[in-house]
Structures are given as structure tokens and as C-alpha cells.
Hints:
Elements lengths: L11 E6 L2 E7 L3 E6 L4 E10 L2 E13 L5 E14 L3 E5 L6 H23 L10 H20 L3 E3 L4 E6 L1
Antiparallel strand pairs: 1-2, 1-9, 3-4, 3-7, 4-5, 5-6, 7-8
Helix pairs in contact: 1-2
Amino acid sequence: MVPAPAHTQAGVLLLKKKGRTIKRFYTGKNFSFYTTDGMPVHGRLDSTVRDSIFLTYFQEERVPTQWGTYTTQVHGTFDLKFSMANVGSLPRDKRSGLLPGILILGGAGFTVVNIINTVREGDAPFGKDNIAYVLSGLAAVATGTLMLTAQPTKYELGKKYTLEAVQ
């Protein structure tokens, strides 16, 4: 039996919120961030040395195949080096949430069913007896949509979030 080779991590980046680790970025994996000027940077994390981040950027292009599908070809690789002081923010995962989804689906469903039932009974769908129900359903949809759009899309480094390199 041949022993498997063991490799140590060349460096790990830790995203911390008030001293508590909330996300880890390992070498060899994709890493994205925005510089302090707002420029997006994306590449494979190669290593971290003291206060520097070393990435490899792959220039890719989608090329059609003879079967009508597409494949990705790499045209070149570029080594990128950044100081930790140049990292301004990191993108968050996709926005989600159970409560906003329930509000949007529930409010829309309630409004549609209410209008269908009101028309089926022969009443005016936006009459004075029914307008409060329609507005309450639409208010739930608006609240859920507002909750989704109000969620932050970036981890802004500074007072609350910090990025640390661990060797």
C-alpha cells in the first residue's frame, strides 16, 4: 500500500465578522473581490504571503462546436498580485430568504384568488368592499420584494468585516 502524498495549505484567507470567522477561502479555489476603487477581480487563489494575495486570471472565451453547442477555451493566463489593503469588499452569496419568498408568493396568490372569486361571484374586483383585500395582498408582495432588494450584496471590509491571511 502506497501512502497518499500530503500537502499543506499555502495559505488560507479568513473573512471575519467582529473577530468570528464566517467564511474561508482556500488556495487552489476561485476567489472574487472588489478593489477599494470598485474594480471587480476574479481568479484562482494561488497563495497568500504576509499581506499579499497572488491570483491566476484565466482569459476564457465561449466557442461554438460543430454540434451547435458551446465549449470554453482558455486563451491565456495572467498572474495577479494584490495587497490586502487593496481589497475593499467581497461579494456575498445569492440573495435569498424564506420570509420574502413566502410574502411574495402568498401575497400574489391571495390577490389572484381573491380577484378570481370576486369576478366569479359577479362583484366588482376593485369595489369598495374588496379593495382592502387586494391592497393587502399587493402590500405583502411589495414588502417581500423590498426585503429581497434591501439585502446587501457585498461584505464591505472595514469596521464590521475583516480579511485575514493565515499561513
